[in-house]
Amino acid sequence: MAHFFKRLAKAAPIAFNRGFTSQPKSSFTSFRIPFGAIAAFSGGISYYYHFSSPNLVHLDEISEETGPNTGLSLSLSLSLSLSLSIYIYIYIYTHTHTHKHTHQLEAINHTRNSLNPDKWIEFKLQDRAKVSHNAHLFRFSFDPTVKLGLDVASCLITRAPLGQDAEGKTKYVIRPYTPISDPDSRGYFDLLIKVYPEGKMSQHFASLKPGDVVEVKGPIEKLRYTPNMKKHIGMIAGGTGITPMLQVIEAILKNPDDNTQVSLLYANVSPDDILLKQKLDVLAASYPNLKIFYTVDNPSKNWKGGSGYITKDMSVKGLPAPSDDTLILVCGPPGMMNHISGDKAKDRSQGEVSGILKELGYTEKMVYKF
Q1: Domain edges within the chain
Q2: Listed range (101-115, 200-214, 220-234, 242-256) with the worst mean pLDDT
């Protein structure tokens, strides 16, 4: 009988091993049927039945007188056929259900988010890179089997400890940032941050090394973008105000069914301050529905873009005209916001439109301030 079990184990190693070795617990069931053990046990019963049945012994005795041992051959055939049938059933059952449970687990993971709008979550810094004289790209990692949970267009809130108050409680500095990585990216997200000498949060980011963590909460939804929501979207950005614009731009360009036209006016202090210019230029060269115009306060000798602040003339030439099918997005430092569209209201609602955009006839329904 030991010889039979060895042959069965070799013929059905997967079922045999699964029947007698421990398996990871599944979230779908708390009870595991030892199919491999059943297969081996069934084979053993067939083997025992062959050697113990008086009828088969009687057949053997007759066969000794009349001819070849047909009873033995028949019983062995039945035994092996039974064991093989059980193994095939076990293999199909376990193979099918294992894949089914795997797909169910994947489906559950795809609906889970790394971000939590009500809880601070630690994200580890994977890597960092300098992209300009005062801006850095920070890549944070998370479980690649789950989604980040970021919609277009939305931002994250970050916080860092900043000493203690009079009661000994930890004080924090809190700042919002918009990831520039694809919201569907698995396992990481990227933040583009300009480091200011007096910036408490940006200085904290500048001190981070790979392996350090940052607490994050979110997402905080800004503008709920949907494909083809407007025929033409105009954008005015200054400095790091490019980050929410890039999020919307990439969402439009990666969708072949989105026919939205995009026009971007991007203002900076100098050519060296233009963030992600190489990436933006590649996108503009690759997609005819994206037009970009750069302007800087301090142009270099070989500069071919605009000079100075964004003017009414630049806006007329570079933006879609006021229309129900037009939306103008604005993001930048307070001075630029006041000059272009007016800042948000004190309660952080959109407030009234003023500045250049009001002079050109744009209404509150046509303008969104990040």
Answers
A1: 114-221, 232-369
A2: 101-115
Domain 232-369 has CATH 3.40.50.80: yes
Tens digit of each residue's pLDDT (9 = 90 or more) over 311-357? 999 999 999 999 999 999 999 999 999 999 999 998 989 999 999 99
pLDDT per residue as tens digits for the range 4-14: 444 444 444 44
Q: What is the dihedral of CA 302, 304, 309, 313, to 10 degrees?
A: 150
CATH superfamily of 114-221: Translation factors (2.40.30.10)
The annotated binding site for FAD is made up of: 175-177, 192, 194, 200-202, 243
Numbered residues of the known binding site:
175-177, 192, 194, 200-202, 243
Q: What is the pTM of this model?
A: 0.70
Closest CA to 366 of 221, 231, 252, 239: 231
